[in-house]
Amino acid sequence: MAIEIKAPTFPESVADGTVATWHKQPGDAVKRDDLIVDIETDKVVLEVLAEADGVLGEIIKGEGETVLSAELLGTLNEGGAAAPQAAAAPAAAPAAAAAPAASAAADSEGDEQLLNPAARKLAEENGLNPADIKGTGKGGRITKEDVLNAIEAKKSAPAAAAAPAAKPAAAAASSVVLSEGDRVEKRVPMTRLRARIAERLVEAQSSMAMLTTYNEINMKPIMDLRKKYKDLFEKKHNGVRLGFMSFFVKAATEALKRYPAVNASIDGKDIVYHGYQDIGVAVSSDRGLVVPVLRNTEFMNLAQVEGTIAEYGRKARDGKLSMEEMTGGTFTISNGGVFGSLLSSPIVNPPQAAILGMHKIQDRPMAVDGQVVILPMMYLALSYDHRLIDGKEAVSFLVAIKELLEDPARMLLDI
């Protein structure tokens, strides 16, 4: 019985996706819940799992092809047996004698089976004969990387022909030495996530009246509090570590309550005021910047904030963030300080109205009660949509965060 393998149902905010990687090839045995194929969207990578035991049949959508929500990707033959490999050895000499004939037949038909769709397409576009490409995949299959290596080898062939004929065999495998003045370029397609990030950043700057206000914060009270209680905090909350981000999330939550316009968004000609605080926390991953959302931070304590952020960080590194975890958000916090940024102007993530930028903590001489004191200072930046938020509100919001963090007892006492 053939089971249809379909793309996941995308949310309304996601128009389509791209087939990123087929983890199984036609003829491979598949167990229930095995990962078959990855679908990359402009937000996350979605995994398609096997619905039953069987053998992968036809691949309809190859790697790199665009797919729509719930579109057919391929078929799975339920309960079938995997295609025989070299294990099916001949039992007698006559069968062995027939091997050359089988090999000759495979030359005409096997190439198509040994190439996955993406590799076949790439080989055809570059005029390569699959028979000339050595496959490194399972069962000798030719992967996309094998085709790319063959393309590079083809480009370097003229230079190799001009070289002296007598060369040690090891020299053929050595890296190419570029002569002085050579300039190398590498062209790769932009990932869907990177393309979407670029699109949204341009959209934000062209559709908003965006500007940024700055302030600075003395981090010593928070650092002293963290130093005093971090061990007890970690022990009390089952290994959750106390960082700085939870303090900023709680301070921002309190400030958003006081200045609801910063927590609002524009929908056409309407202003939507959100009666909850869903704060997105920018996380860097191998695929690019992602912003998972902390839901209802007004009801979360510091340990819950830190634990959720740590979990999001692990999921981002593994590419396991779900669409629900990436959707929504009424405000965003971005911490460029972890990369050493001293000052920057973050870009608002529409349809949100504002974003808070944290930066590097750096010791600086400060005037305190007429005395010069060395204090750990951080610059804060609030970028906001001036169509919705007046300068007075933006500055007051940032000052509120500063006051709450420089005197953490204010958050406990709600003052």
Automatic annotation (TrEMBL):
<dbReference type="Pfam" id="PF00364">
    <property type="entry name" value="Biotin_lipoyl"/>
</dbReference>
<comment type="pathway">
    <text>Amino-acid degradation; L-lysine degradation via saccharopine pathway; glutaryl-CoA from L-lysine: step 6/6.</text>
</comment>
<keyword id="KW-0816">Tricarboxylic acid cycle</keyword>
<dbReference type="InterPro" id="IPR003016">
    <property type="entry name" value="2-oxoA_DH_lipoyl-BS"/>
</dbReference>
<dbReference type="InterPro" id="IPR006255">
    <property type="entry name" value="SucB"/>
</dbReference>
<dbReference type="InterPro" id="IPR000089">
    <property type="entry name" value="Biotin_lipoyl"/>
</dbReference>
<protein>
    <recommendedName>
        <fullName>Dihydrolipoyllysine-residue succinyltransferase component of 2-oxoglutarate dehydrogenase complex</fullName>
        <ecNumber>2.3.1.61</ecNumber>
    </recommendedName>
</protein>
<keyword id="KW-0450">Lipoyl</keyword>
<feature type="domain" description="Peripheral subunit-binding (PSBD)">
    <location>
        <begin position="114"/>
        <end position="151"/>
    </location>
</feature>
<dbReference type="InterPro" id="IPR023213">
    <property type="entry name" value="CAT-like_dom_sf"/>
</dbReference>
<dbReference type="GO" id="GO:0004149">
    <property type="term" value="F:dihydrolipoyllysine-residue succinyltransferase activity"/>
</dbReference>
<dbReference type="InterPro" id="IPR050537">
    <property type="entry name" value="2-oxoacid_dehydrogenase"/>
</dbReference>
<dbReference type="InterPro" id="IPR011053">
    <property type="entry name" value="Single_hybrid_motif"/>
</dbReference>
<dbReference type="GO" id="GO:0005829">
    <property type="term" value="C:cytosol"/>
</dbReference>
<dbReference type="GO" id="GO:0033512">
    <property type="term" value="P:L-lysine catabolic process to acetyl-CoA via saccharopine"/>
</dbReference>
<dbReference type="Pfam" id="PF02817">
    <property type="entry name" value="E3_binding"/>
</dbReference>
<dbReference type="GO" id="GO:0006099">
    <property type="term" value="P:tricarboxylic acid cycle"/>
</dbReference>
<dbReference type="InterPro" id="IPR036625">
    <property type="entry name" value="E3-bd_dom_sf"/>
</dbReference>
<feature type="domain" description="Lipoyl-binding">
    <location>
        <begin position="2"/>
        <end position="77"/>
    </location>
</feature>
<keyword id="KW-0012">Acyltransferase</keyword>
<dbReference type="Pfam" id="PF00198">
    <property type="entry name" value="2-oxoacid_dh"/>
</dbReference>
<dbReference type="GO" id="GO:0045252">
    <property type="term" value="C:oxoglutarate dehydrogenase complex"/>
</dbReference>
<comment type="similarity">
    <text>Belongs to the 2-oxoacid dehydrogenase family.</text>
</comment>
<keyword id="KW-0808">Transferase</keyword>
<comment type="function">
    <text>E2 component of the 2-oxoglutarate dehydrogenase (OGDH) complex which catalyzes the second step in the conversion of 2-oxoglutarate to succinyl-CoA and CO(2).</text>
</comment>
<dbReference type="InterPro" id="IPR004167">
    <property type="entry name" value="PSBD"/>
</dbReference>
<dbReference type="InterPro" id="IPR001078">
    <property type="entry name" value="2-oxoacid_DH_actylTfrase"/>
</dbReference>
